[in-house]
Every structure is written in structure tokens, then in C-alpha cells.
Amino acid sequence: MSTTSESYLVGLIGEGITASLSPAMHEAEAAHHGLHYLYRPIDLDVLARPAEDVGELLRAGRDLGFNAFNITHPCKQLVLAHLDEIAPVAAALQAVNTVLIHHGKFIGHNTDQTGFASGLAAVLPAAAKDVVVQVGTGGAGSAVASALLAAGTGTLHLVDVDASRATERGAALNTLFPDRRTVAATVEELPALLREADGVVNATPVGMHHYPGAPVDTDLLTGSQWVADVIYLPVETELITAARAAGCQVLDGGHMAVGQAADAFALITGIEPDRARMRAHFLQLLHAQQG
């Protein structure tokens, strides 16, 4: 373990994030590297501030000596107008979840995309990815879809209760990945699409504690598909549990949660974290929170 006199002050801006596991994950990994690292949630609900104040909060943080901020719902798009530079991936997705402060300038990144991609590569490296069905095309869904296409998915079917959002995201992705095929599909087409899919991804809130259930008919899972979820509270969603029971390979939402945190940590500190250690700590935190 190396030590450094450099200190880090990092924040998380979003709504309802007081219980976030990110502070504990970042601080514990920093301690292993001998870093002086403080990570604080800046909850808009607690402060009674609107999401539109994200730029004002960024500037105040810069003046108070913050090194970086993570940005979460509902500020990932709103923050764009307040940045001096945006990394190519974040610019393509039009969403930022990590802001570095260098020499007084705000530089935006998106580690949701890389976070999902790293989990996919680590857990399902050899799984067929030619045809994938993804349910949900919001902020997380945009990052996941981009990661899937970059990983080699040839045909990506996007399904959303808001059909216009799926159509809009599909058109944007076809421009970004002209050698791939992204198609908006209806909820009614979902059963037929699932039968032909190599993989199924949930990028909706369905499955969270407050939104119980599964986003697809789990009886259609045959074991021939792999199944991924972006939800990590709980990490064993109804979809993931049913997929395991059906014999499917699974990628739980904890991998994306840890992956985005690890990538943000690397951007902030310049140090590559121990991802397996962060995953183990994350699971400990989940167990303690749910116990």
C-alpha cells in the first residue's frame, strides 16, 4: 500500500441519495491505497434544492476545494450545460455521471457505460451477444445500449413503455454505430423477441424494492439466453432469480454499480482500484443494509 499527502474531496449530487453505497465504496478503496479521501452525498431532497441548481452546486464545490463530483438522477443531462469539456463517450450519450475539476474547469465523463461494459466483459466474456433485447431506454438504458453495441451486439431491440423514447434512442444509436442495427420495438412484440434473443437486459426500475416484479415474462426464459439487470437494490431481483432458476447466465446490477464506481475512482485519483475487492466490499455493504 502506497501513501500520499494528496487529499481528495468528492461529492455526489442527486435526489434521494443519502443511503447511497458510493461514499463507503470510494472511501474504503482509497484507504487501501493510503489516500486521504472524503466522499459526501449532496442530496437535493435534503437541501430542498431543484435539480436545476446542479451548476450552482458545482461552482460552490469548486470554490470550496472539491476535486470531483459524481452526478446521478435527475442531473445527468442538466449538468451538461455547466461543463467546460465533455469526454467523447459522455458527449455521445448526452449524459454525465462524473465531473472532474482541473484548474477550475469542469470536465464531464460517463462511467455508467464503461461500468456496464466492464461487468459484461468480466462475467459474460464468451456469451453470444449478436441479438439482444433491452427493456428501458432512460439514462441508464442509454449507457447500457451503447456498451452492448460497442461489445459487438449486431441487433439491439429496444423496448420502452414510452415508444417515442425508444425510437429516438434507436435513431441516435444507429448514427453512433452505423455498422450495427438498433430497432425500437413495442411491448407487444417482446415475447417473440425474447425467444430469439441471445441476451436480455433490464434497464427499467422494475424489480427495485419500490417497484416489485419483473419487466418481462420470466416464463419465456429458457436457459439459452443470458440475462442482465441494472438494479442492485435488491441485487437478487425477481428477474435475476428467475433467470438463474431457468439455467441462464446472469449479470446482476451490482456489477454495473461497482464498475461505474471503480471507473470514477480511477478518473479522480489516477489509480486503478482493485475491482474484486470493491465488489466484495459492495456485497458486504448490501448485506449490512438489508440486514
UniProtKB/TrEMBL annotation:
Coiled coil: none annotated. SUPFAM superfamilies: Aminoacid dehydrogenase-like, N-terminal domain (SSF53223), NAD(P)-binding Rossmann-fold domains (SSF51735). It comes from the Bacteria. GO terms for biological process: aromatic amino acid family biosynthetic process; chorismate biosynthetic process; shikimate metabolic process. Pathway: Metabolic intermediate biosynthesis; chorismate biosynthesis; chorismate from D-erythrose 4-phosphate and phosphoenolpyruvate: step 4/7. Residues 12-99 form the Shikimate dehydrogenase substrate binding N-terminal domain. The keyword Amino-acid biosynthesis applies. InterPro entries: Aminoacid_DH-like_N_sf, NAD(P)-bd_dom_sf, Shikimate_DH-bd_N, Shikimate_DH_fam. One of its GO terms (molecular function) is shikimate 3-dehydrogenase (NADP+) activity. The keyword Amino-acid biosynthesis applies. One of its GO terms (cellular component) is cytosol. Keywords: Amino-acid biosynthesis, Aromatic amino acid biosynthesis. This is Shikimate dehydrogenase. It comes from Kocuria rosea.
